[in-house]
Design a protein that fits this description.
With 134 residues, this protein is of the alpha+beta class. It has a domain of 88 residues: Alpha-Beta Plaits, CATH 3.30.70.330. It is built from three helices and four strands; from the N terminus they run αβαββαβ. The relative contact order is 0.22. GO terms for molecular function: RNA binding. This is RRM domain-containing protein. Keywords: RNA-binding.
Length: 134
């Protein structure tokens, strides 16, 4: 895997299938590890597409889900809850390690930083997946 987390394999193989990564295969995952990450620190105007572009380069990426809730404060920004699914906890842990503290806009001094953690109880989503713009 390249340092930026991109899948550099050919023929659909994950880089881990092609070349062993010394020191990586023996790192134990924490007991709360799941294949879904909970992401905080997204700007209120974030779109699913923007967030997907951040996570898509990582091996094992499946999808991003954004849930928007209205602020409890008058004229406040909406709250964005973000969940990113991976094929397994190890792939999620790799992305979390690489993106912890990622600055959303490097040219804006007031830009937020991402805070990632394993999602608690990341059970199956309810209902069909809506289509269209988010």
């Amino acid at each position: 895997m390249a340092p930026n987390g991109r899948n550099t394999g050919f023929g659909g193989q994950h880089p881990a299938d092609i070349m062993p990564m010394p020191g990586r295969e023996n790192v134990p995952l924490p007991p709360d590890a799941s294949s879904t990450l909970f992401v905080e620190g997204l700007p209120a105007d974030s779109t699913r597409r923007e967030v997907a572009h951040i996570f898509r380069p990582f091996v094992g990426y499946k999808e991003v889900r954004l849930v928007t809730k209205e602020s409890k404060h008058r004229n406040g920004d909406p709250l964005i809850f973000c969940f990113v699914d991976f094929v397994n906890p190890a792939c999620a842990a790799t992305a979390m390690s690489a993106l912890q503290g990622y600055k959303m806009d490097e040219h804006d001094n007031d830009s937020t930083y991402l805070r990632l953690q394993f999602a608690r109880n990341p059970g199956p989503r309810s209902g069909p997946r809506p289509h269209g713009r988010r």
